[in-house]
Description:
Pathway: Protein modification; protein glycosylation
Helix content: 40-55%
Keywords: Gibberellin signaling pathway, Glycosyltransferase, Nucleus, Repeat, TPR repeat, Transferase
Strand content: 5-15%
Catalytic activity: L-threonyl-[protein] + UDP-N-acetyl-alpha-D-glucosamine = 3-O-(N-acetyl-beta-D-glucosaminyl)-L-threonyl-[protein] + UDP + H(+); L-seryl-[protein] + UDP-N-acetyl-alpha-D-glucosamine = 3-O-(N-acetyl-beta-D-glucosaminyl)-L-seryl-[protein] + UDP + H(+)
Main location: nucleus
CATH topology of the domain at 487-638 and 832-868: Rossmann fold
Region (Disordered): 1-43, 908-934
Structural class: alpha/beta
Amino acid sequence: xxxxxxxxxxxxxxxxxxxxxxxxxxxxSPDIRSPLGSGPIKKSLEGxxxxxxxxxLRSRNKFVDALAVYETVLEKDGESVEAHIxxxxxxxxxxxxxxxxxxxxEAVRLDPQNACALTHCGILYKDxxxxxxxxxxxxxxxxADPSYKLAAECLAIVLTDLGTSLKLAGNTQExxxxxxxxxxxxxxxxxxxxxxxxxxxxxxQYDTALNCYEKAAIERPMYAEAYCNMGVIYKNRGxxxxxxxxxxxxxxVSPNFEIAKNNMAIALTDLGTxxxxxxxxxxxxxxxxxxxxxxxxxxxxxxxxGVAYGEMLKFDMAIVFYELAFHFNPHCAxxxxxLGVIYKDRDxxxxxxECYQMALSIKPNFSQSLNxxxxxxTVQGKMDAAASMIEKAxxxxxxxxxxxxxxxxxxxxxxxxxxxxxxYEQCLKIDPDSRNAGQNxxxxxxxxxxxxxxxLYEAHRDWGRRFMRLFPQYTSWDNIKDPERPLVIGYVSPxxxxxxxxxxxxxxxxxxxxxNYKVVVYSAVVKADAKTNRFRDKVLKHGGTWRDVYGIDxxxxxxxVREDKIDILVELTGHTxxxxxxxxxxxxxxxxVTWIGYPNTTGLPAIDYRITDALxxxxxxxxxxxxxxxxxxxxxLCYTPSPEAGPVSPTPxxxxxxxxxxxxxxxxxxxxRVLQVWxxxxxxxxxxxxxxxxxxxxxxxxxxQFLSTLEKLGLESLRVDLxxxxxxxxxxxxxxxxxxxxxxxxxxxxxxxxxxxLYMGVPCISMGGHVHAHNVGVSLLNTVGLSNxxxxxxxxxxxxxxxxxxxxxxxxxLRMRLRDLMLKSPLCDGSKFTKGLETAYRDMWxxxxxGDVPSLRCIEMMQQQQxxxxxxxxxxxxxxxxxxxxxxxISGDDSLAPIKINxxxxxxxxxxxxxxxxxxxxxxxxxxxxxxxx
Length: 934
């Protein structure tokens, strides 16, 4: 980004021989008259040695006066060699080189062995660029007088300049030879060593170059350029501390040396990045700021400060430094991209789009910005534009793994699960460790799993095996093994805001026996809302602990869990967005549980138990799980309705004169098979209508495709109303007033939508299946006392819908009493449910105190099989538990929250969206440009 530092090049004839008066310039005094004028002075000179007087004048830099005296001497004695030399020096110092050369030549003619005259001839030749002739003169001078120091020093200078000229002409080896000849003549001539250092640096012979620079610095301790170039070599080798030390020595002798200051800024910036990546972000920030002390307009340091402050969640500061970086480097597309990420997180989507577009105006094929712009378009409901941007990102960078992941999210949102899985798998081919794609693939497979297929289990199991290798595991804990002591329960989730999961975790947070069960919440919420604050207040009011862990490394969160002495750690997210399964993989708690957020096994051997019930996971299920199932006698969920729901409205069929069926489920759950059944129902009920609400209906192409599919099934598009995402929760809940009968999806059943429809008085028809994801609606409806709305197959599903639609009076009566029926059922009895949940926790703790730790057995089995079958993954028996746990009594019931997708790397989920992605995050610290030698 920023301009690179500079390498000080080869020294040409810059050195002046300060100890030789003959090479110092001077000016005659303005009031001095010729000493040879008339009067007493002339008479006194006639009696004195005029030549000695001329030399005195010359030594005092009075060259005009001295020249006049030398000329007088030569008028009397034209063969005075000393006078010719003195005259030549005076002419030379007045920049009269040609006349000076004539005087020196005459001196040489009179005395061919005169070293002084020969040397000064050489000096004039050098000044004219006649280096070879100058060298010849110096050599003659030394031959005449080997002890003549001036000739030796001048020869070293001219040989050095000859070496540089040869190097610049491409004759590097000959140039090197000249430098060594210069050193042989004058072993103390620092520039020769220095220029050798430059040449060896360019030849990448850095050890030799360093040796030469060090010798130059020894001979000339104030040699700033040598220190600077040593710093560059150390910097390019990655030895930033040594580089900085060299730059400090350079600036100590030359405080205003701009090249060294710029190079110091580069080295400090890189050191800041190094220590930040090692985990010391505060020292990293300090180094970035110190870099700006040396180069206040260094854009790289500003950019990296933006990155650091972003990682520290100090987004206002990050914005300041990204904007400064862009100001001082208008070509910094990365700063624009990262500004867009921050504005997107703050829901300032227009500003985010502006920033991404600015980045693309600088770098049209900048894949990250293309991808991130696609993410914003997704949030804005511009699905077609989003797909176009992400596809362009892939064209710009075919190995951009996360772009394929994000394309998969778009396919999933549009209900095309097969293409979504293909995109996720393409991402995984490029980046096998892509966490988003790996987990999104597992999640997507649930939508199309219609049978008890072991492939889904195997996919989860294999993922868990690979994932465990990324984290170290704790195998012992300091928790006191007292089976009856008060327990510390930890709940970890990113969904403590107005999100589906929040409706099912609220009851335990409120109703726990806070004497015997201390609650510690680990909140990874990206963007807190009023519900977050309400949850926090309730937890703290009852003596619990609330820890905000968003943005904190999962290993550090695991350490926090250990420090908090958590006895039972419950994760509520599974493979959905912003999960903390990496923390769970560390096994920071003696007992680990998964609950609520995911309708299948996590596949993670570090988790002991999965909470469910006998309807969602029947005792004779063939579905395999890595965790051991703990079945609660009632529903495994407890629903706390939204206070914003509003009253139940009358049955719309009474005023409309026709039945309206509806579904507010995720489009990914509305499979072609579901549409076939729905079309059968609508076609069998005259004048009936279908209303479907989901986020992707913001897209014209998605709406048209959906309607086209129904048209092919015989249902006219005019009978179908499609609604996009409704942002405000109260408006979302009131939208249920538009439907008479809710149609659940299958095989992947709804959860929160089922609870919402029942609470708003809308009966919901569901159908059971083979695995947990199929049976959540079964569990919910049975718990409310509506088992008559559960179908065993598609035909029965259709008949139940037709039966409800056939009697509007009965439908209206059911609508008016449904909320009360639900509130009085175990599904909404938070106190009773939580007592049962505590019984489950106590039983888990009893087993731990007896040494019964399912996850440790699983891990041990895994390790044994890895040793026996080093060429194979886990065998199918690994981590599969068929042992039935002790039955635990519990009341209360509720369903899984609608799943939110992992994916777009960075953007936080919208507060009211049940299926939001994450977008590509901040670019990594920008590597500073390599410093160049000075």
